[in-house]
Write a structure and sequence with these properties.
The complex is a heterodimer of chains A (198) and B (178).
Chain A lengths: L2 H24 L13 E4 L4 E8 L3 E4 L10 E8 L3 E5 L3 E6 L7 E11 L6 H4 L4 E2 L6 E5 L23 E14 L5 E13 L1
Antiparallel strand pairs in A: 1-4, 3-10, 4-10, 5-9, 5-11, 6-7, 6-11, 7-8, 7-10
Chain B lengths: L1 H24 L9 E12 L4 E6 L10 E2 L2 E4 L8 E6 L5 E6 L2 E6 L5 E11 L8 E2 L7 E2 L5 E11 L8 E2 L4 E5 L1
Antiparallel strand pairs in B: 2-5, 3-4, 4-11, 5-11, 6-10, 6-13, 7-8, 7-12, 8-9, 8-11
The chains are: A mainly beta (198), B mainly beta (178).
Chain lengths: 198, 178
């Protein structure tokens, strides 16, 4: 390649890289989207769902949200009180038999309930929890539910030096396990819970 | 040439900048807005049945070279010709095992039979050398943490009175929870 050509090649590639770099540093500006530094999702109780010993062919094991604490995972969502959040989760997961080349599987229908009345403590908040219908796989709600009545004045817009008030909502993960005629052994699966501002 | 060296350097620098921006270019910014947790779900299934399956049959045909005085002997612990069976049930459960030691093996072509005397060893895992003869185990037998127990089946057959032909036989073993 001649001198000029090589020069041109480098110039063009540098231009490309520079342009690419600058493009991403623009970023997308989403008006009304809060910095998610304010959003938290934390365990506040048991962190696993262990359905314990079950008998093959038992049928569907349904967990009652209000009565069976040992089989409900409570989580807290902390964020800007007047904002909506969307919680997504898989409507069903498979519990797969471990330590075998020919695993049996059981289906777990994942349920979610949320409590956003501003009640403190997941145990107290549970009695006011709203169950999301089975099979939905997501729920959207305000972190702190506006009490009934005419809407108040619009919230103070975010600006430098102002931190909007935060609130805590609780969500509860539980489910219905279908125990079919499966072979004996240990079964395991994973449930991913995601939360973001709506 | 000096110009070239500078060019190379600048080129390299810009490439680095580009690489750092790559995650952004690939649109991974969106994940920063999501908070996630992972919940592990588990269950232990118990069965009233103990499943028993044959992993491999006893290789009598291959055991011809084990003959001594017309007696074929397959040692369940040491001989690769031993048959292998696997029981599956509730993890850690205690089991009682019994088997028919002597079985009549019939000749396909007509009258004439042999007597096979079985010798069985067992181990809570797939390890023939570690297995112990069931007759000699004093302590309890237990399925392992995955609910598994292996049986290795050998035995002895006297061929001195045997008529030539094909012989078919069975092995019967009974396993139950205690």
């Amino acid at each position: 390649m001649g001198h000029t050509r090589r020069y041109l090649f480098f110039l063009l590639s540098m231009a490309f890289f520079a342009a690419a770099g600058f493009k991403t540093s623009e970023a997308q500006v989403s008006f009304g989207l809060f910095s998610s530094d304010t959003l938290e999702l934390n365990f506040v109780g048991i962190e696993e769902l262990d359905f314990g010993p079950r008998i093959s062919g038992e049928g569907t094991v349904s967990i009652n949200l209000q009565e069976e604490e040992g089989l409900v995972v409570p989580l807290e969502i902390v964020g800007v009180a007047y904002l909506d959040v969307t919680v997504t989760f898989p409507p069903t997961i498979e519990l797969v038999q471990q330590d075998t080349d020919n695993p049996d599987v059981m289906t777990l229908n994942v349920r979610m309930a949320y409590s956003n009345r501003g009640i403190e403590g997941e145990d107290f908040a549970r009695s006011a929890a709203v169950e999301v219908p089975a099979g939905m796989g997501s729920g959207t709600f305000q972190i702190q539910r506006r009490p009934g009545g005419p809407p108040g004045p619009p919230p103070t817009p975010p600006h430098a030096g102002y931190t909007p008030p935060t609130g805590t909502a609780y969500i509860y993960i539980y489910g219905d396990l279908e125990v079919g005629q499966v072979s004996a052994g240990t079964y395991r699966g994973d449930i991913d819970i995601n939360v973001q501002y709506f | 040439m000096k110009t070239s060296k500078h060019l190379y350097f600048l080129f390299f620098l810009f490439m680095l900048l580009f690489l750092f921006q790559l995650p952004g270019l690939l649109g991974q910014n969106q994940n920063e807005n999501v908070r996630s947790v992972n919940i592990s779900a588990s269950a232990t299934v118990m069965s009233s049945n103990i499943e028993l399956e044959t992993i491999s049959d006893m290789g009598i045909v291959d055991a011809r070279n084990l003959q001594e005085d017309n007696v074929i002997y397959i040692n369940p612990v040491f001989d690769p010709e031993a048959g292998i069976m696997r029981a599956r049930g509730n993890p850690g459960a205690q089991i009682r095992v019994s088997y028919l030691e002597e079985m009549e093996v019939s000749r396909r072509e007509g009258p004439g039979s042999l007597y096979f005397v079985y010798e069985v060893s067992g181990y809570a895992g797939n390890n023939q050398r570690e297995s112990e003869l069931l007759d000699q185990i004093e302590r309890e037998l237990r399925l392992n943490d995955e609910g598994i127990f292996y049986f290795f089946i050998g035995g002895r057959v006297d061929l001195s009175q045997a008529l030539p032909g094909n012989y078919d036989g069975e092995f019967t073993i009974e396993i139950e929870y205690i």
